[in-house]
Amino acid sequence: MLPVLKNTATIRAAVATLLIMAVLPACRSNKDEADAFGNFEAVETVVSAEGTGKLLSFMVEEGMRLPADTIVGWIDSTQLSLKKSQVKANIRAVLSKIPETAPQLEVIREQIATQKREQLRVQNLLKANAATSKQLDDINAQIAVLEKQYRSLASSLNTQVSGYSSEAQPLEAQVLQLNDQLKQSRIINPVGGTVLTKYVERGEVVTYGKALYKIADLSSLLLRAYIGEEQLGQIKLGQQVTVRTDLPEGKYRQWTGTVTWISAEAEFTPKEIQTKEERTNLVYAVKIKVQNDGSLKIGMPAELKLAKQ
């Protein structure tokens, strides 16, 4: 029960006190009002199988932190290894057919060398009138025949070598392809982060492209919020802003965030935002990067406060 006020001055003082008490919370409320709302998200990577076969090993569990470029599993590659061995055997069989060119050509080279020595001897005898021109002509003809045989044999041998080498090239390409497929039987974690979802278990048969697990780096999260056109002048890339998350009893926890992205095009406010009237407004999406100490979770709501100009 309010006390009875006995004079006008006292009444005026009481009214003024009540008005101040009513206005101050409103002022604090306006000053404390958020400029935008949104939810936290992370860059999520779905790791898929690059081979087909039974999952022999899979060292992944939800909530596990995995460093980048770490082998976390193996897909059975027995058939690939057997096929590689078969192809390599075929290569050896083809290459074994390549003739030995050097010994065959060496025989004719020796014959040519012998005839040239004889040619020199006959030339000396001819100068001493101890031989005839016909003897020299016969030797020259023999040398020409041998040189022609040498060129023909060399060309034939080169054709054979080239043919067998060409036959082996597709097989060697198959070996390279199988080596690549064998590498893909290893499951390598591409990015450092925390496993969010695990889709398969060890022992299952997976196929190329099948999702194995989802991972994201939770050391920092992105707050996706939406601002109106009139707020664009208050925000820019690289700017430090304040992000608030809820605490019990209506309190907030403040975080420092950095603006990493501002949409270049306006869009309608997403349907999950506030009222139907607000969803028909044109807004711009922004992303705020916030360092996470483990308290922030994907999907958690948050508020954005901009520095007033």
UniProtKB/TrEMBL annotation:
Main location: other
One CC-aspect GO term: cell envelope
Gene3D superfamilies referenced in this protein's UniProt entry, alphabetically: 2.40.30.170, 2.40.50.100
Coiled coil: 122-156
Location of this chain's protein in the cell: Cell envelope
Family matches, as InterPro entries: Beta-barrel_YknX, UPF0194_transport
Domain YknX-like beta-barrel, chain residue ranges per copy: 224-301
Keyword vocabulary terms for this entry: Coiled coil, Signal
One Pfam family of this chain: Beta-barrel_YknX
Endpoints of the signal sequence: 1-28
PANTHER family, per database record: BLL5650 PROTEIN, EFFLUX SYSTEM COMPONENT YKNX-RELATED
Name of protein: HlyD family efflux transporter periplasmic adaptor subunit
